[in-house]
Amino acid sequence: KLGATDTVNLRDASAVEAVKDLTGGHGADVTLDAAGAAQATKDCFAGVKSGGVVVLVGMAPEANVELNVLDVIIREYDVRGVFRYANVHPQAVALLAAGAVDVESMITQRFTLDEAVEAIDFAEKNKETAIKVMVNA
User: Fold this and answer.
1) Residue 96, SS3 per DSSP
2) Average per-residue pLDDT in the chain?
3) d(CA 110, CA 106)
């Protein structure tokens, strides 16, 4: 409904192989690491197409992740860092105001402020189905 047409369970397949299969071997136009795990970061570099864009949002526990600089140069992809969405709030608010993003359909559960602890517990225990758990004030 929101644009994702193919999903991959990473328990069953390699992220890079799945991206290559879905793109006819070319790689994705844009890869995004929001997990912050070293392997996810490496997979973003391996799964992007030549001339594509790698966006790093997730913050890994370790500051350094192995990067093949020659690969970046030869395949000419861009690497961009985003510090926790710090500079995109005006764009996000404008998209919401214009009705360009259907955020309501992303919310899978709602809890009251008094149920905040239960909400966190629910999100942790139901990772397969809890896409966006909201706590309403």
Assistant:
1) helix
2) 90
3) 11
Contacts of 90 (CB under 8 A, 6+ apart): none
**pLDDT (tens digit per residue) in 71-83:** 999 999 999 998 8
Q: What's the alpha-carbon Rg for the chain, to the nearest Å?
A: 18
Strands 48-56 and 109-112 turn out to be: unpaired
pTM, 2 dp:
0.70
Q: Is residue 16 a contact partner of residue 47, using CB atoms and an 8 Å limit?
A: yes
**80 burial type by CB count under 10 A (0-12 exposed, 13-18 middle, 19+ buried):** exposed
Give 31's strand partners.
54
76 exposed, middle or buried (CB, 10 Å; 0-12, 13-18, 19+)? exposed
**Letter string b/e over residues 102-130, b meaning 16 or more CB atoms within 10 A of that residue's CB:** eeeeeeebebeeeeeeebeebbeeeeeee
